[in-house]
């Protein structure tokens, strides 16, 4: 395992001498760069240098982190990895914990020089992951036991797509389409075939047969039915082709055609039942929100692919406050000095 602490930035001189490869193919931070402090705000490096020259870098502090709005905690494992190997004590709630605005969700005790430079990174990790997890949890409250899957990887930078999908799983998603995101959570990625397959083959039933022929048995037969013809018509054509092998049909009607409407779901469900295909599930995707999902459930939908509602969620602003210095209570104006009494925090480092 790479020792991520060896090249940690500790001075302005190191920042000045930091060279970036002009041929760098992607602009996202590499793991070693995050751990080194290269993604921090520069004033934390200035603070470190001043405290070191003042002989105060090893001052023992207690810092607490709280959110600015309600949400669901995610990102704790990454923060744990960021601070691993340091002489610190860290407490936090478990990922998936539902918090309220201003709740203390994490506490760090130890030398300020051990973690001060990483404030930017750890707050960013918690802020974005918790925002995505909160959005997924809102969907979970609506679908209850029905499955829904995170389909939003295409809406974010690829460097954070797996972070987003993992956070969605923390928040209650049943699965995720992004390979790395699902794997990071110990799951297998989910997804069958895009419109491209059907367009290239030229016919929904022919594409369905090709999928059935070439995909392994453990790949569910869930087929898009909105590419060429009326969705209800295509649904019956596909069902007649695969019969009991068909797991479900996916409705992803574009907004240019009015999107997926409850009336369409009702019709597809009724026609499937009338034709003896009651076992076939109806999967809905495309511009879903909790309100639309609720309507679709009432109409007979069985599962959902949720993209931009999760991926587009803004981060939950996180704040880190120093509450003790060398064991003495202290705080900036507007904050209450001393450790906050919190039930449920668990030691993670």
Q: Largest beta sheet, briefly?
A: 6 strands, antiparallel
* Low-confidence parts: 1-5
CATH class of the largest domain equals Alpha Beta
**What is the CATH third-level topology name of the largest domain?**
TIM Barrel
CATH level-two architecture of the largest domain:
Alpha-Beta Barrel
Cross-sheet strand order for the largest sheet = 13-12-1-5-3-14
CATH homologous superfamily placement of the largest domain:
Aldolase class I
Count of helical regions = 14
Count the domains: 2
Order of helices and strands: HHHEEHEEEHHEHEHHHEHEHEHEHEEE
Question: Helix/strand/pairing class, anyone?
Answer: alpha/beta
Give the overall silhouette. Answer: elongated
Task: Tell me the span between the first and last alpha carbons.
Answer: 18 Å
Please report which band the strand proportion falls in: under 5%, 5-15%, 15-25%, 25-35%, 35-45% or over 45%: 15-25%
Based on CA atoms alone, the radius of gyration comes out at: 25 Å
Helix share of residues? 25-40%
Tell me the total number of β-strands: 14
Rounded mean pLDDT is 96
